[in-house]
Amino acid sequence: MRRQDPVFLTDWTKDLPTVVRGEGIYLFAEDGTKYIDAASGVKVASLGHGVKEIVDAMAAQAQRLAFAYTGAFQNLPQIELGKRLVRFAPAGFVKAYFTSGGSEAVEVAIKLARQYQLAKDRPSRYKVVSRWNSYHGATLGAMSLTGQPRRRQDYLPLLIDFPHILPVYCYRCPLGKSYPACAVACAHDLERTIRLEGEASISGFIAEPVLGSSGNGLSGPPEYFPILRDTCDRFDILLIADEVITGVGRTGRNFAIEHWGVTPDLIVTGKGLSGGYSPLGAVLIHQRVWEVLEREHREGMFLGYTYSGNPVACATGVAALDYIERHDLVGRAAARGDQLGRRLQSLAGRATVGEIRGKGLLWGIEFVADKVTRAPFRPPGAFANAVAREALRRGLYLNVGSSDSVDGAYGDNIGLAPPLVTSAEEIDLIIEILGDAIAAAEATMLHRQREGLTHAPA
Ligand code: PLP
User: Does one domain contain both 317 and 391?
Assistant: First the structure.
């Protein structure tokens, strides 16, 4: 993609390689360059590229029925995907609402939390609490939840006044404590925030079990989600698991919240649900919420997406779930994820590697300018981008995390989330190239460090 092409690239300062084909974990550019897609795009292409049976299922559905408005007609792929997805989810989920992606699904979750409170005759409740250091999407409701200061900044006047609690971030505890002596105080910040805001205004709480772009691989200790669940129960607000990245096998469980043994009220998912073959997201509704909605909203409610339950998108989701189950991709994500985690540890000794963290096939590395003080790099994001650039030059594509993840101002992290079909040998290859890329970025940085340009305040 060149700058002069008539396409609005949101970062128009870059010329991006144009890819023309994908196969397995590889992408091929028009100039013949081959890239390992070690980020599955942005944690999307879980099944790998070019899976014929998914494409065949899509084509067959497009031929039978490509579109029928779901406000007027039910369609078979939507029914089938609903059945399959509630079976795939933790026990107790009974309904699925389909969207064209994660942000749309987050908007639906915000509305369902509101509808739940309306059904309980609490019309003052509308705020969904979220966390700093989170990412929930780019539409205005989802961005209001998002806790990335830099991405929010330009749009602040347009955002809803949703409160944010402290992030879970043991490597840089925002309270200066250490686990387990901290008693997971960051999770108790939900109760404090609800009280400060006034519980009469709160409808729900949303969190990602493991972070994507806002702090690749970060997650909480075993007590974290049980404490949040308990708080949500005591205030009768909905616990919403944002599993747009972590859902459908990515972390070695069907849904990542299962690592904490907690059942949320709503699960938002997308990305790996279709493996990127079709735009698709979903909100799963637990029985205890559905009962209330069904009883009190006798005439239904407005959500309104034209493409909700699109037959081709849903047929893609069914084919993707078939593929995931038949090839035990959730088990493979767990096994390959263990290997990836172990192999990443071989990079822990490098001068710039601050923390390595993740679950299943969702890992991140946080880079620091000084491993003792944990001082981040300056300018923010430059080092992570240098690593990604060096990796791409060597045929390895990675995600660069947000450059404000440390404290709203600084942060250098990268994300690794290869397709769930990645082989053991391919994991080794990814680590080998990544090690070279970090070494090359460090060599460049050393030069700048001598000029005192790379340390942010500790
Ligand atoms: N929620 C999370 C946790 C995400 O990571 C994302 C996207 O990266 C979204 C929501 C938004 O999804 P989409 O980009 O499909 O709208």
Answer: no
- Ligand 1 atom with the smallest distance to the CA of 103 is 16
Which tokens in the block code for residue 430?
Answer: 């990814």
Domain identity same for 73 and 45: no
Same domain, 249 and 398: no
Token pair, residue 407, equals 């404290």
From first to last of its 458 residues, what are the pLDDT tens digits of the chain?
677 788 888 888 888 999 999 999 999 999 999 999 999 999 999 999 999 999 999 999 999 999 999 999 999 999 999 999 999 999 999 999 999 999 999 999 999 999 999 999 999 999 999 999 999 999 999 999 999 999 999 999 999 999 999 999 999 999 999 999 999 999 999 999 999 999 999 999 999 999 999 999 999 999 999 999 999 999 999 999 999 999 999 999 999 999 999 999 999 999 999 999 999 999 999 999 999 999 998 889 999 999 999 999 999 999 999 999 999 999 999 999 999 999 999 999 999 999 999 999 999 999 999 999 999 999 999 999 999 999 999 999 999 999 999 989 999 999 999 999 999 999 999 999 999 999 999 998 877 765 665 565 55
- How many structural domains are present in the chain? 2
* Ligand 1 near 270 CB (within 6 A): yes
State the CATH number of the domain containing residue 162.
3.40.640.10
SS (H, E, C) 244-262: CCCCCCCCCCCCHHHHHCC
- 244 Cβ below 6 A of ligand 1: yes
Residue nearest to atom 8 of ligand 1 (CA): 137
145 and 203 housed in the same domain = yes
- Confirm whether 457 is domain-assigned: no
Q: Is the CB of 245 under 6 A from ligand 1?
A: yes
Tell the residue nearest (CA) to atom 7 of ligand 1. Answer: 137
Tell me which of 273, 307, 324 is where a domain ends: 324
Same domain membership, residue 227 and residue 110: yes
**Cβ-based neighbours of 265, under 8 Å, separated by 6 or more:** 116, 204, 232, 238, 239, 240, 285, 286, 288, 289
User: From ligand 1's centre to the CA of 103, what distance in Å?
Assistant: 6
- The reply to whether ligand 1 has any atom less than 6 angstroms from the CB of 131 is no
**Among candidate residues 324, 354, 375, the one where a domain is terminated:** 324
Kindly tell me the number of DSSP H helices and DSSP E strands found in the chain. 13, 15
Note whether 160 and 247 are same-domain residues. yes
Tokens of 76: 């078979």
Q: Answer yes or no: is 412 within a domain.
A: yes
First-residue to last-residue Cα distance in the chain = 39
Domain extent, residue 423, equals 19-50+328-450
SS3 189: helix
